[in-house]
Amino acid sequence: MDKKKDHKKNIFHHEVDEDEMEIKNNHKKAIVYDKRNRNHHRESTDRNMNDSFHNGNHKENSNIKNDISDNIDSKEFNSNHEHMHHEEMDEMSHEFMSHDSNGMMDMKDLKKKFWTSLILTIPIIILSPMMGMEMPFQISFFGSYWIVLLIGTIIYFYGGSPFYNGSKKELKDKKPAMMTLIFMGITVAYFYSLYSVFANNIFHIYPMVSDFFWELATLIDIMLLGHIIEMNSIMSASSAIDKLAKLLPKKAHKIENGNIIDIDVSKLNEKDIVEIRAGEKIPADGIIIHGKTSINESMVTGESKRITKNVNNGVIGGSVNGEGNIQVKITGTGKKSYLSQVQNLVSKAQKEQSKRETMADIIARTLFYVAIILGIISFVSWYYVENISIAFSVAVTVLVIACPHALGLAIPLVVARSTSIGANNGLIFRNRTSFEQIKKLRYALMDKTGTLTEGNFKVTNYKSLNDGFTNQNILEISAGLENGSNHPLAIGILSKAKEMNLNYEKALDTHQETGIGLSGNINGEKFRIVSEAYLDRKDIFHDKSTFEKLAEKGNSISYLLNKNDELLGFISQGDEIKLESKKMIDSLKKRNITPIMLTGDNKQTANLVAQRLGINNVFGKLLPEDKEKIVRKYQNSGDAVMMIGDGVNDAPSLAAADIGVAIGSGTDVAIDSADVILVKSNPQDIIKFLDLGIKTTSKMNQNLVWGAGYNIIALPLAAGVLAPFGFMLNPLIGAILMSLSTVLVAINAMLLKDVNKS
Asked: Residues of 683-708 as b/e, b for ≥16 C-beta within 10 angstroms?
């Protein structure tokens, strides 16, 4: 498994000299996270990790915990003051979009090369012998060999160019694999065939030299077809980098000399003042200098609640403003912004991911070295036994047949079949290497909000427990008490009241009573909203079973009382746990896969959800780079790690994990960073993916055996190991074996069964 050095930059802590903390023009220069806040975050993270590993089941967790703590301790602020606007973001996006481990171009060019090569192959099949054997349908005439040479040259340089580019990259990385093996085969075939044309028709060498134009053309066609099948099967990789940039609005309301001017976000600079209206996206990182609001940062941080923001509080570009109008002083644009740093984490993780090797690459590398060694041995042996002409011919034959046609279809045909089955089961695969990681999978790291829970913090139930009040009365009175509050629970109640178009009376003299709850007067009558703890303390009877049933789903329950502490009703709200989450966790445990929760949400809520689901290891209040570092530290144990998430804050860890699984209802950025997408957003579909992945890997391995099996038989025979016994590989037998292995590979791929079938 490839490892990557840990990132040492803290993207959230802005160090600003204390001199700048003075009040200027009633606008206070504030720091989003000063040194004291950083220490608090570090201590909080350490406590979370200590709690998590204290409950862990694996001995190695203690070592992982220490590594993670050291890593997060070492965060430093990235003091790069350059501005990266949209043009620079685009530039970065294109850099990573063009990166491809196989050096392949886009699908349009690939198909063009395939169809052109296929059409040009027809006259070669008619005019050229197959492995030296004349077929009944073949014809020849004076000068036909020059036509074959011309067409073969076009096919080699045009159709074979992807394999040249791919092999160049593999050799540069000192990791020859499938592209190198293919390019070796077609290159030897082409230049030996070129030699045969001149030897036979210009120099009239005897015996005549056989050409390999037939093998050259068909090999290029089959290999191009294999790549097209695989690329068609896998969802095209759109750019997560671009999607991150799209989280920001296009325009910002800049305040200049008392006037509001709409400008492009890319033109914002630090210390600019902008106005952000209710419901608008925050254009850049900054500090509130005027106004009060609540901001939904779940799109960015994963926090499921709206966060109350006052003057001097920091805001993150890309998050959504609530119902208040605010003025913000910009503190971070371009490379200093939160989203830009997340973007950087994703792109680095994607680069690292592209280095992962597949079983096909390993087999191809082995065949490459075996063919080279066997070719050299064959040449030397036959040179001393016979002559250089025969030695040359035998060595070339060995190198040409080292890459069988079946090997080019072994994986693509299985991927195509698996992708079809996956689509029928709500699974989309974007990276076939994820299948091969399942057998090593030991840790399943997962986000909470939107992954294990529904992702919407809202009123889930409200009910009257007093005959004098209706269910609607309970909601109306509660909304009246909570009116004007920015508390997350209050926002949930007010949002529900607004959704139902309730006309409620606003409470007077509202105040928070320590140890009791919120109280106020409505129409001259006093009401209060309290928690279950207050009911227990005052011995107020209530239905415990109802409370436990709602709490098990992660709900927070508030009770409405009158002035005499009589129970009138209750309201529950929260981020409900998905029904399938518990089944998924139990299934992972049965497979000896340890579930671990990584969330940007508060530790209390995270622990509650984890307890209900049976998850022992919990990390709360994590930032995106914290999640990625935890993923990498678990990878350092030598086992494969799966990450399941849905938010922008999950994107770096999804890209870094051995298997990244995105919830279909999640953000585009998370989806584009993942290997697998759960279309139905059903956690239980993860188990379907694991089952299908195991079956797919088995079929891949079987097909690789069938594809490489041809070489096991043909290579030594072509080298002449049985020559002392009077047997050399007949070209026709070689062609039959090659065709048979290709047919077996195709049939075996179609035998891959649905995950719902035995």
From this structure: bbbbbbbbbbbebbbebbbbbbbbbb
